[in-house]
Structures are given as C-alpha cells and as structure tokens.
Design brief:
Layout (H helix, E strand, L loop, with lengths): L1 H21 L4 E5 L8 H4 L4 E8 L8 E10 L2 E7 L1 E5 L2 E5 L6 E11 L2 E11 L2 E2 L5 E3 L5 H15 L1
Antiparallel strand pairs: 1-2, 2-6, 3-4, 3-7, 5-6, 7-8, 8-9, 8-10
C-alpha cells in the first residue's frame, strides 16, 4: 500500500515536471498568417494557410524545418512534400500545395543549439487548420502519431 502511494506520487511529480518543462523546450509553433507581421514581404505570401516558427532555439534563423502534407484523396493515401516560404528569419509561410481531400500537415524541425528535434502535426480542413487538434511535440513525430491524426481528420470530416 505504501509502495503504491510512493509510485503514484512519483508518477504525478514526473508528469508535472514534464508539463512545466514543455514550455522551455524546442518546438515549432503555428499561427495564422497575420502572426508573421504585416510588412511588404509578409503580404507577398498570398493565400498562406499558416505560418510556422521555432521557439526555444538559440539561433532561430539556423533552424531547419521541413513539411509534408499527409492525406487521403478518394480513398488513396498520399504524401506531398511542402515548400516552406521564408517570411522573416525563422518564420515560414505554408501555402496550400495539396489536392482536395483529408489532410494533416507534418512539420519537422531541428535546432543546433540546444541540439533538439521537434514536430508539429496540424489537422487541416480545406485551407484552414484546426488549432485545438494541433499536436505540438517536443520530439520528432512517429509514423503512428501522424497516421492517428490523419485517421481522426478522415473520421471527423466524413
């Protein structure tokens, strides 16, 4: 009984520590295109679905970010490499580059200092993202996480 209480207390403490640390770990945050600012270069990125930026990295301009749209189109699974458009140092816009269907956007980034990798999985509806279902991860996403997110999008839009 006493061992169970100690293990439960350790589990709660561990979870609390992990949640507190998540705000201080490298990650990729997304936002509406207006979040990138309103200068001429930002306005030149027409029809952006979202913008992505790295946080908690010593040199955000050196962060490498890649994007892949993962989807289902007429029952067939598809992956589309997504070109990220530099807006300001460390901030990139994402325009729609995938056909009609059910999609999630997988953004993956690496920071050199502190050395870290992170992913963000963004469910999409047409040209809009679903913020409350977006997964901001402080580690690379697994294939299973991406597939589960896509499955959820297909289920919720059918």
């Amino acid at each position: 009984m006493k061992t169970t209480r100690i293990l439960l207390a350790l589990a709660i403490l561990s979870a609390s520590t992990a949640m507190a640390m998540a705000g201080t770990m490298f990650r990729l945050e997304i936002g509406l295109p207006i979040a990138a600012g309103t200068d001429t270069k930002v306005k030149a990125v027409k029809n952006a679905v979202l913008v992505v930026r790295p946080v908690v990295c010593d040199d955000v301009a050196s962060v490498k970010i890649t994007g892949t749209a993962e989807g289902m189109v007429k029952g067939a699974r598809q992956s589309v490499a997504v070109k990220l458009i530099p807006v300001t140092p460390g901030v990139y816009a994402v325009q729609r580059q995938w056909p009609e269907g059910h999609w999630v956007l997988h953004l993956a980034g690496t920071c050199l200092s502190p050395k870290a990798s992170a992913s963000t999985i963004v469910p999409l509806v047409g040209t809009e993202f679903i913020r409350d279902k977006t997964q901001v991860l402080v580690e690379p996403a697994t294939r299973a996480q991406i597939e589960a997110a896509l499955k959820d999008v297909v289920r919720s839009q059918s």
